[in-house]
Amino acid sequence: MPLQFGDIYVPENFNSEFAPLKEKIESLINLSRSAGNERRYAIPNNKLMRICLLAGLSTPGKRDEAVVDSMKLQQGNRFVPSFFTHQELSPLYSALIKMRYHDTSLDLGNNRVLSRIIGAEMYRGRDTLLADNNLENYLFSQSGRAALAKDIPALNLLIGNYGDAEMEAKLDINSRAITNAQIIIAGATGSGKTNLLAVLMQQIRALSSESAYPVNFLLFDYKGEFSDIQNNHWLSNFDVDRSCILDPIERPLPFTPFKDFTNRPINEINLYSTEMASALASLDRLSPSSNMSNRLSEAIVECYKRTNGAPITFTDMRKEYQARMKDPDKDDSISSILKQLDRANIFDTEDKADLVGDSFIVKMDGYPKDGPIAKAIVYFLMSKLNNIYEQLDKQAVNDDVVQIRHFSIIDEAHYMLSFDNRPLRNLIAVGRNKGLSIILATQNMADFKNKGFDFYANAQYPLIMKQQTIDDKVIKDLFGVSGTELQEIRTAIAGLQKGELIIKDQMAFALGMGSKYKKINVTHLI
């Protein structure tokens, strides 16, 4: 019987122990100098682990049971199942492990023992590859294969266990059976929200980053935790390195936020100018007069005329707007916000990076969370994604799953939900058709429903963590309950501890019977 690779744990201290091999592989693959905006290759953790495992199992020699027994495992951090099934290698792993350990007394059916064996073989592979010229010989003898739609990874995100049971809690993100891939999280400070975001990102990347259909992400790091150099070890969980971190205080973000209207009709620019004027007013809670709004729209149109439809800048807008004022030296609310955006210099004048084709973490802790600059960064990058969305081919599909290309992850999302945020709404409403999805995290469960948009109704997975205030109306809308059932869910939310969440039980909800919720203990990752 083949070995069963379920509940297999990652070796403790993998990141630090295997760093020398990772650096050596990347130094062999990357050129000594990069050209232009070319990004250096960073080997995904899954691929590094698999290389080490195969190299270890390929190395002959008697296995020492003491080495296996001494192997320490990282609690709570398990391999995703696709690690073993990737390229249908599971039977090979099983056969090699049985061959190498046939003369030991180790119980290969015990998942903890099997985890230690796999860890020991990875270390053996690491040591083998670092010796002599073994790494060069191993790497450059491999060949690739063409990407096919059947290779789209199934994104069943393992985020923890249900209640006190050992049953795995998974979120199906891209099967054809679900309506969308949006996730919303409500959790008060100290509820474990940051760790949950990290788990979701780790699973998305672990399941996809070395496939032919990688899922990239854009994370707005309001608290600066993910971009903090002290937390550098977090990044390897997401198969990225510090090159993915963008700090707009240090240098402009490598994108233009403005749409390109080259060879487009003037009526499209007119419509866009009206939307842009409304957006700028919303970012700083302005109530501009109709004259000011018209002046701004006219200024935007004139800027585009001067560039022949090419993307404009905030500097262009400010100058053109002020030229239309009776007293350019006396600021009104519109010229004031334009000056702030101009001085902040948060965006480049052209696209110098692939927003969907790569992963990025935008460092946001240098700005007031509720200020116009922080809002502008998120708003205009969401707008940029909408522009990209229009140009993308429809995502790949097979009989089981659809391709997900990209996740935008907005922590502290309540700052972006309190006004008519059209780019965000558009991305949620139509992004699935092109494989673009959203994870929104906020503190209060009531934040996700406002006059303009019901985010609960458009989310496949509302995840409720510990709350400072429990909103009965949200519970009624979300779970379709009242009376005793409502009080049961209310009590469950009130009793949540750090790292626990409540999720709607879709089966019970559909059948109209049984408990309408499940409690999940989230994997502790960071």
Question: What does this entry look like structurally?
Answer:
It is a single chain. By secondary structure, the protein is α/β, with parallel strands linked by helices. The protein folds into 3 domains: 9-144, no CATH class; 152-250 and 353-522, Rossmann fold (3-Layer(aba) Sandwich); 266-344, no CATH class. 40% of the residues lie in helices and 12% in strands. It has 20 helices and 13 strands. It has helices spanning 14-17, 19-29, 45-58, 65-70, 82-85, 90-100, 111-130, 134-139, 193-208, 232-235, 266-283, 290-306, 314-323, 333-344, 372-391, 414-417, 422-430, 472-479, 483-494, 506-511, and strands at residues 9-11, 73-78, 156-162, 168-172, 183-186, 216-221, 245-246, 360-363, 406-410, 436-442, 461-464, 500-504, 517-522. It is globular. It starts with 8 loop residues before the first strand and ends with a strand.
Summed up, what is this model?
By secondary structure, the chain is of the alpha/beta class.
